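lol forgot to send this yesterday, sorry. struct tokens for the thing we talked abt
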């Protein structure tokens, strides 16, 4: 299997758990399902699953993704990756820490709205994505005549 960047991705046997079926979570779940990955998406609001496409072939689970019982129902112990994309940084961090520390999941990603928290949690070995930081990088690329003065590390991240 190849990623959109043309890189080869080794398909793993476990499923991918996504917490939060918002705009990004639903989009990612649809995309992963379309390329043949097993996906379980969790949201506390059952209406959120309406955002999934009719072709979505994964599982939906209603519940709070920070609750261990909900994660057990998602069979987190068998997951190959956990991606937490709810609209709360603290929830995403909690889900990521549970996945990493209690269930030893190798690939764990948390979305963080607050750029200052991003560096802190990267130190705990949790991969984070921060929309504000990503947007700054894209704006910097689109404005070549107005250098924003981002550091090399900020651009390379
Ligand atoms: P969005 O802001 O569009 O990315 O949507 C975020 C989604 O995360 C919404 O559908 C929320 O219902 C969902 N969400 C927020 N907190 C939790 C939680 N603790 N467990 C599961 N889903 C959640």
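and heres what i got for the seq, position by position
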């Amino acid at each position: 299997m190849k990623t959109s960047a043309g890189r080869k991705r080794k398909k793993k046997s476990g499923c991918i758990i996504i917490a939060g079926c918002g705009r990004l979570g639903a989009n990612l779940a649809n995309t992963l399902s379309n390329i043949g990955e097993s996906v379980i998406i969790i949201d506390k609001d059952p209406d959120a699953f309406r955002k999934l496409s009719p072709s979505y072939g994964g599982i939906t689970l209603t519940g709070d993704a920070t609750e261990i019982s909900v994660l057990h129902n998602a069979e987190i112990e068998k997951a190959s990756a956990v991606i937490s994309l709810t609209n709360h940084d603290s929830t995403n961090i909690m889900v990521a820490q549970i996945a990493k520390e209690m269930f030893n999941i190798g690939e764990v990603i948390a979305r963080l709205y607050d750029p200052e928290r991003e560096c802190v949690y990267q130190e705990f070995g949790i991969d984070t994505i921060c929309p504000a930081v990503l947007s700054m990088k894209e704006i910097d690329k689109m404005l070549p005549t107005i250098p924003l003065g981002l550091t090399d590390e900020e651009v390379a991240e």
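The chain has a mean pLDDT of 88. anyway ping me if u want another try
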